[in-house]
Specification:
The chain is α+β, with helices and mostly antiparallel strands. The chain is 27% helix and 26% strand. The chain has 8 helices and 11 strands.
C-alpha cells in the first residue's frame, strides 16, 4: 500500500505498554479519516492484547489496564484489520504527533508478524507545531489543543488523540507543510534518516560541507556552515548533528528549525532539493535561546 495523491488525511495514534518499540507492544490503535475541510469519512478504534502485562507507568498515562485488554484481539488480528481499513480509501497524508514513535511501533509489530511494511510516511505535527509556535510553553498535544480550544475527550486515549491531531492540523491549516516525515520503520534497515532528508544523508557519506539557514539556536537566526555527521532524536525532536565550522565543534540542529540547505564546494555545487517542504525564501522565526 502506498499513499494516494489527493487521498484523504488520516490521523493516527497508538497507545503502548511503554516507550521502547523493541520490547514494548501496542495496546490500542486509533485512526480518523477526514478531508481538507475536516469532514470525517471513517474511524478505526481497537484495543490490542499485547501478550504481556501492562506496565504501571504506562497505565497511569493512558488508563488502559490488563483487565480492559483481557478480551482484546492480538496484534496478529488487529493490525491486518487496520491495514485493510487504510486500503479501503488510501490516504494522501498520514499524521501523528511524535510521528517517529508511531512509525517505529507499527514497523516493529508488522515485522514480528512477518507482514510487509506499507509504503507510507507519517508526517509529524509535533515538528510542525514547534516551527509554528516556537514560544509555546509546551508542544505536548493536549497542551497545544487546550490553547486552541480543542477538547475531544480524555488525553492519551487513541481516538481522542487522533481527534486532537485532526483539530491541530485544521487549526493551523497545514501551514508550511509537515517538516519531518517518517517511513514505517523497517527493523532490517535500522534507524534511517527522516523521509525527505536523503540528500543530507548522501552529503554525510561524502563528508560534504553545507550551508543551512537556521531559525534559532544560541546564535539566533541566520546562516550556518556545517559538516553534517549523523541524524539523532531526543524528546520527540529530530536533529542533525554536525560540526559547526564557525565554532569548530559538533552541535545539534533541530530539523524543524532548518529553513534551507545548500551544498558548498570548490565547483559551486547547487542546492540540495528541499523535499522536506523547506523553502529557500521562508521567513526566519526568532526563537528564544535554549528552546
Amino acid at each position: 500500500m502506498t499513499a494516494r495523491p489527493g487521498g484523504p488525511i488520516v490521523a493516527i495514534d497508538l497507545e503502548t505498554t511503554g516507550l521502547f518499540p523493541e520490547s514494548d507492544r501496542i495496546v490500542e490503535i486509533g485512526a480518523v479519516r477526514f478531508d481538507a475541510n475536516g469532514v470525517e469519512s471513517g474511524r478505526f478504534e481497537r484495543l490490542v492484547h499485547p501478550g504481556r502485562p501492562m506496565s504501571p507507568s504506562a497505565e497511569r498515562i493512558h488508563g488502559i489496564s490488563d483487565a480492559m485488554l483481557a478480551g482484546a484481539d492480538p496484534a496478529a488480528v488487529v493490525l491486518p484489520d487496520f491495514l485493510l481499513w487504510l486500503e479501503e480509501d488510501p490516504p494522501g497524508l498520514v499524521l501523528a504527533h511524535h510521528a517517529r514513535f508511531d512509525a517505529a511501533f507499527l514497523g516493529r509489530e508488522l515485522a514480528r508478524l512477518g507482514r510487509p511494511l506499507p509504503a507510507l510516511e507519517v508526517s509529524d505535527t509535533l515538528a510542525l507545531a514547534r516551527r509554528l509556535f516556537p514560544r509555546a510553553p509546551s508542544h505536548r498535544l493536549e497542551v497545544l489543543c487546550e490553547q486552541l480550544g480543542i477538547d475531544p475527550g480524555p488525553a492519551h486515549r487513541a481516538i481522542a488523540d487522533c481527534l486532537r491531531v485532526k483539530g491541530l492540523w485544521l487549526a493551523i491549516g497545514g501551514q508550511g507543510g509537515p517538516l519531518v516525515r517518517y517511513p514505517i520503520f523497517d527493523p532490517s534497515r535500522g534507524d534511517t534518516a527522516p523521509s525527505g532528508w536523503e540528500a543530507v544523508s548522501e552529503a554525510i557519506a561524502r563528508g560534504a560541507r553545507l550551508r543551512i539557514r537556521y531559525a534559532g539556536g544560541s546564535r539566533g537566526p541566520g546562516p550556518r556552515e556545517i559538516v553534517p555527521r549523523r541524524f539523532s532524536h531526543k524528546g520527540g525532536a529530530a536533529y542533525l548533528v554536525a560540526v559547526c565550522l564557525e565554532d569548530g565543534f559538533e552541535k545539534a540542529f533541530r530539523l524543524d528549525r532548518v529553513r534551507s540547505i545548500e551544498e558548498l564546494g570548490p565547483s559551486g555545487a547547487g542546492s540540495i532539493p528541499p523535499s522536506t517542504g523547506l523553502r529557500p525564501d521562508a521567513p526566519l522565526e526568532p526563537t528564544p535561546r535554549g528552546d
